[in-house]
């Protein structure tokens, strides 16, 4: 009898283990971990894959995100209104891009670019149902990203400035560049701004899941050192804003008035994000900067005012474009491959969305997200993590398109998915 029970127990045990390993939550956890690790270790990962003739394998982590999307959709069952609306926008504007853009492939590549955002939108609740597991992973990734930058101060990595060919195209592994004679440190990532984004994002998340105040302070200070070493001014600006957010929250005890002030600041930042780039359509700013410090801090912002933003809106050269944009793939990386003569980075979250989806819909989407986050933040302190990430995204989104920075794109999707999650207060 005992032998029979033992024989029955063995398959039941392994069956439970297998079901646990194949649960959607576990698959999302490991898919996300592999993707984030491939970004944090972007330089060595791509360098050694290319060195051993396995360049195509570098896309496996992102392909896995793509494969997981239909699985998560089928697993969800009844979708929320937000998910239905999001799916409709992607479908319609991918189709519009196929009509409006020079080639069908450009629009399809545009969809490929936003895979992390779509994945984040669908996987949002898994990050909060298994917070302890993600906390451990984000601690490890934070340490790797920060260590890569600190070591890079003294050691020149072999992948910096290297490239490889795939599909007949030259793909850069890790950017070698300088700003006014200062070398921009990228650590293990693909560029200095990628390293800064990674360090900043993981530290923001850890500020809400680590219990020890002393460790929180240590993480935040270390994050500031790492971001400063990359000389990424946009991320450093967001870091200073969030430092004020955290310190003022402690001083004023997260009272309602404090939260109301920060909601107003978020909405003011959103207004600037939208209206300043739009104003370049009719106003020629032509700012001039004198002295080394002024040029180091503001020259790239002047380039956006003078050229990048007005030229980006210039892609909308007819009335239909101003209503519906160019479709997904209409600006940014897809242009560099399929429309190189008109390629522009957008360098602003609203500009990127406006060219793809039309200025009106882009503004509506951003306003809806910020108002939802504001309402949640005013109701409960539990929304502080989502609100903090959104403060970071809107602040940095002033000078970067966000959507093409994979980690920010993924967690922009997570923020949207969490805020509009069906039947849940956040």
From TrEMBL:
<feature type="transmembrane region" description="Helical">
    <location>
        <begin position="111"/>
        <end position="128"/>
    </location>
</feature>
<feature type="transmembrane region" description="Helical">
    <location>
        <begin position="21"/>
        <end position="45"/>
    </location>
</feature>
<feature type="transmembrane region" description="Helical">
    <location>
        <begin position="82"/>
        <end position="99"/>
    </location>
</feature>
<keyword id="KW-0472">Membrane</keyword>
<feature type="transmembrane region" description="Helical">
    <location>
        <begin position="383"/>
        <end position="399"/>
    </location>
</feature>
<feature type="transmembrane region" description="Helical">
    <location>
        <begin position="234"/>
        <end position="252"/>
    </location>
</feature>
<feature type="transmembrane region" description="Helical">
    <location>
        <begin position="264"/>
        <end position="285"/>
    </location>
</feature>
<feature type="transmembrane region" description="Helical">
    <location>
        <begin position="177"/>
        <end position="197"/>
    </location>
</feature>
<feature type="transmembrane region" description="Helical">
    <location>
        <begin position="137"/>
        <end position="157"/>
    </location>
</feature>
<protein>
    <recommendedName>
        <fullName>O-antigen ligase domain-containing protein</fullName>
    </recommendedName>
</protein>
<keyword id="KW-1133">Transmembrane helix</keyword>
<feature type="transmembrane region" description="Helical">
    <location>
        <begin position="204"/>
        <end position="222"/>
    </location>
</feature>
<keyword id="KW-0812">Transmembrane</keyword>
<feature type="transmembrane region" description="Helical">
    <location>
        <begin position="349"/>
        <end position="371"/>
    </location>
</feature>
<feature type="transmembrane region" description="Helical">
    <location>
        <begin position="57"/>
        <end position="75"/>
    </location>
</feature>
């Amino acid at each position: 009898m005992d032998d029979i029970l033992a024989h029955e127990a063995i398959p039941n045990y392994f069956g439970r283990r297998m079901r646990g390993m194949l649960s959607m939550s576990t698959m999302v956890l490991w898919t996300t971990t592999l993707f984030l690790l491939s970004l944090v270790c972007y330089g060595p990962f791509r360098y050694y894959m290319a060195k051993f003739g396995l360049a195509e394998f570098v896309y496996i982590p992102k392909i896995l995100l793509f494969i997981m999307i239909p699985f998560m959709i089928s697993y969800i069952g009844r979708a929320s209104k937000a998910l239905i609306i999001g799916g409709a926008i992607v479908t319609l504007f991918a189709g519009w891009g196929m009509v409006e853009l020079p080639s069908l492939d450009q629009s399809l590549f545009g969809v490929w670019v936003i895979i992390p955002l779509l994945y984040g939108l669908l996987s949002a609740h898994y990050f909060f149902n298994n917070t302890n597991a993600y906390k451990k992973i984000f601690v490890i990734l934070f340490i790797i990203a920060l260590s890569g930058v600190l070591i890079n101060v003294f050691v020149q990595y072999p992948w910096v400035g290297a490239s490889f060919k795939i599909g007949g195209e030259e793909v850069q592994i890790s950017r070698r560049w300088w700003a006014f004679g200062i070398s921009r440190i990228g650590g293990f990532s693909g560029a200095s701004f990628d390293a800064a984004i990674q360090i900043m994002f993981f530290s923001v998340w850890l500020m809400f899941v680590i219990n020890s105040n002393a460790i929180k302070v240590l993480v935040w200070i270390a994050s500031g050192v790492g971001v400063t070493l990359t000389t990424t001014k946009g991320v450093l600006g967001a870091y200073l804003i969030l430092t004020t957010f955290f310190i003022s929250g402690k001083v004023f005890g997260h009272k309602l008035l404090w939260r109301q002030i920060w909601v107003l600041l978020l909405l003011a930042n959103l207004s600037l994000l939208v209206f300043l780039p739009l104003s370049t359509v009719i106003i020629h700013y032509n700012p001039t900067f004198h002295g080394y410090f002024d040029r180091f801090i503001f020259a790239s912002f002047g380039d956006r005012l003078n050229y990048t933003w007005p030229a980006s809106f210039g892609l909308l050269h007819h009335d239909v474009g101003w209503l519906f944009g160019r479709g997904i793939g209409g600006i940014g990386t897809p242009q560099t491959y399929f429309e190189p003569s008109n390629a522009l980075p957008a360098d602003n979250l609203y500009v990127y969305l406006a060219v793809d989806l039309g200025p009106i819909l882009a503004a509506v989407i951003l306003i809806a997200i910020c108002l939802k986050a504001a309402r949640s933040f005013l109701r409960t302190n539990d929304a502080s993590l989502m609100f903090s990430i959104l403060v970071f995204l809107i602040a940095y989104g002033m000078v970067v398109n966000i959507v093409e920075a994979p980690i920010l794109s993924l967690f922009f999707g997570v923020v949207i998915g969490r805020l509009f999650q069906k039947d849940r207060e956040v």
